[in-house]
Structures are given as C-alpha cells and as structure tokens.
Amino acid sequence: MYVFLLLKSLVDALPLMLLAEMMHSAVVRAAPGVVNNAVDWGFSGAMLSVPRSSIAATSVGHLALFAGGKLQNGTSTDIVDIFDRKTNKWTTARLSEARSEISAGSVAGRYALFAGGFDNSFKPMTLVDVYDAKSGQWSQIRLGTARAAPRMLDLGNRTAIVGGLSGDLQYLSNAVDYVDAKLGVISVVLESRYPQLGVAVSDHVGGIGLYTSGYENIQPGHRFNDFEAANRTTVFTAQGTAVGFNGGAQFPFPRWGASGAAANGVFVVGGGHVFSNGDEELTTTTDRVDVYHTATGKWSNTALKMSVARDYPLAQAVGNYVVFVSGTQLSKDFDILDTRTSRFVDTSEHRPALHTLRSDAAAATVDGCLLVIAGGSVYGGRNKTASVEMFDACSGL
Ligand SMILES: *[C@@H]1O[C@H](CO)[C@@H](O)[C@H](O)[C@H]1NC(C)=O
Ligand SMILES: *[C@@H]1O[C@H](CO)[C@@H](O)[C@H](O)[C@H]1NC(C)=O
Ligand SMILES: *[C@@H]1O[C@H](CO)[C@@H](O)[C@H](O)[C@H]1NC(C)=O
Ligand SMILES: *[C@@H]1O[C@H](CO)[C@@H](O)[C@H](O)[C@H]1NC(C)=O
C-alpha cells in the first residue's frame, strides 16, 4: 500500500508519467472563434525553440516566459523561451541550472520567479532563478528549504512560495517563503497539522491568495506516508508590507489534480480526480468546478460543470473569464467561466479550441488578455511538441 501511495504522489508531481496511454489523436473540431458577443479571440501560432513538456510558465510585464521542461529524450533543459507582446517577438535565455518540477510565478509586476525543482539526481533544490522584466537581467535567490513543485501565490508586492515535495521522510513540505519587491526572502512554516500539496490561486491586485485542495500526508513523521485528498484552505493576504495567512472555508470536494485561477475576486478551482470508494486503484476524473468568493469568504453551494471531465487542466484568467483547457482527457475545447455571473459562457455555436491536442502543456496570460499555450505531450504522449497557440482576447475586453 505505501509503495503505491508514494507512487501516487509522484504521479501528482510528474503527471506526464501517467498520461502516455491516455491520449489519442482526436477528431478535428471547430477552429477558435467568437465565444459570445462580448469577446473575440484572435488566434495565432508560434514555435518554442525546443520541443518539450512540463514547462514552468509565467507572465510579467508584457512578457510570457516558458522555462525548462522535459526534452524528447526525458532529460531536463535550462532553455527559456520568452515572448514579448509589445514587439511580437520570441527570444531565448537560460536558467542557471537545468531542472524539472520548477514552480513559476511573479512578484511586484516586475520579476518572474522560477523556484525549486529536482536536479538530475532527483534532489529537491533551493534555487530560484529571477528574471527582471525592467532590466532584462537574470539573478538568483534561495528558498529557505529545498523543494520541488512548490506552489506560488502572487499577492502583489509579495509572493508566497508554498509547500512542495521536500524529499525527506515527511515528503510534503510545510515551508513558506515570502519574496518581497526587493527580492528579500522570509521563510516561515505553515502551522498546520498535516503537510499539504495544494492548488494555489491568487489575485495580485487584491493581494489575496488561496492554497487549497490537493492532498495531505496524514502520517507526517512516520516511516510511511499516507496521502489523502485535502479539504484544508489557507488564505494568504498582503496589505502594504504586511503579509500573513489564516484558515479559510474548507474545500467542498477534496480531490487531486485540480487547477485554479482568479478574476474579479472570484477564485475558481476545477477538474481533478478522486479515488473511488476506498479502492485506491480506481480513479474517477471530475468535471466539477468550485467557486470561492473573496467578498464572503465562502465556496458556492452549487458546483458548476465543465463540458468534459479534466485532470490536471490548464486554468488561466483571461479578462473577466477563467478558461479551462486541456488536461489528460480527449478534448481540445475550452470551457470559459464568466466570473461576473459565475456561469460558463454558452459556446454551443463557436467554441474556442486547441488546434493540437496535448497534455502537460504550459500556459501564461500576458497583460491579462493574451492566453499563450505552449509545448506539452502529443501523439499518445510519445512525442513532445514545440507548438504554441495564442488566443488574443485583448481587443474584446
Ligand atoms: C537529450 O537531448 C539533449 C538535446 O538534444 C542532449 O543535449 C542530451 O545530451 C540528451 N540526453 C541524453 C541522456 O541523451
Ligand atoms: C476535512 O478533512 C478533515 C481531515 O481529513 C476531516 O476530518 C473532515 O471531515 C473533512 N471535512 C469535510 C467537510 O469533508
Ligand atoms: C506596492 O509597492 C508599491 C511601491 O512601493 C506601492 O506604490 C504600492 O502601493 C504597493 N501596493 C500594495 C498593494 O501595497
Ligand atoms: C516522434 O518523435 C520521434 C523521435 O524524435 C520521431 O522520429 C517521430 O517522427 C515523431 N513522430 C511524430 C508523429 O512526429
């Protein structure tokens, strides 16, 4: 049992391993088009400099950055592809070390952060590569403790880098590093009973973020880990230079593999999987979407549904919308939730869709309106792709 449980958590860290068998080439669907009267989604394509998956992606300034990832031969790369929305040009750079399971985010609207990861011998790292969008310079800072796949909450002038895989017996980390606008780092520990590897959703304008869902180790410190779907929600808030966290409303439907994004003070967490009825080997993927309102501090009573069940979907805020796409299921279609109404946009006539069906892709949204989806695994997980698809909602917002 414990061997399987360990594997289960590795799979959460490295979803690609599971995906290989799950994708097939799909029927060609409608090209991206008009969602409704309010939004036009222009489309353009591009290519990364190197095909790869498991890329760490973020946006800062007018840039989208796609860092590292796994190459076709399975090794990690240090390559960074950078798209500048102002010049419409792509350039490349390099991380200071090639690695996998990097977490990406930003702080102070200026710095892109590429935090932690596994080195080539699978050791968690403290390294954070920092790109300054103002000067174009790279530098490095360090996490307080080494970990891979930490989660990042951009709270405006502070960013919280939360949890991750620690590589010791406890395995899931309770560490939090706050990075400030001068790249100072303060390391603290989440005062929670069980270490958790959750979903991070943040609103850098409101200075608020949620760490919720995912799974927790209910036997920390024991020889063998025991992982369970988590319902604990931690709310991070930043005001001026102060930053802290509090317990929040419990996640209504604990599960693994969900993703989330925030717009308009509305936090949206969708997809994921549960293990059926105590049978650890049967998983059910869900189409469920849960909505949290910062105004009330509560989750909605009624869950919403996507058009398909998705595991490890991409979730991105685009203007007032939260877009879910991809995941391990066979769908190129977008599900688009309007955070003003907490309803999915009716896309029965024209549904934006990916041209290339892919899993384990990366996404970043530039200037809040240009959704860039890059790389991932294609052809039944056998091949990595360099393909980039860009959906431009900027003119309609
Ligand atoms: C994987 O491919 C990269 C790029 O082609 C190459 O530099 C690297 O040596 C390869 N690694 C292995 C283990 O084959
Ligand atoms: C939340 O999780 C805790 C710990 O696993 C459990 O005791 C509690 O019943 C859960 N609450 C809900 C509402 O699921
Ligand atoms: C962030 O820092 C800038 C520069 O110091 C300041 O003008 C701004 O008010 C700060 N924002 C918040 C939300 O504290
Ligand atoms: C997949 O990758 C292999 C190895 O690089 C290549 O030979 C093959 O043509 C690729 N398949 C497709 C369908 O692109």
From TrEMBL:
Transmembrane segments: none annotated. It comes from the Eukaryota. Keywords: Kelch repeat, Repeat. Coiled coil: none annotated. This is Galactose oxidase. It comes from Coemansia reversa (strain ATCC 12441 / NRRL 1564).
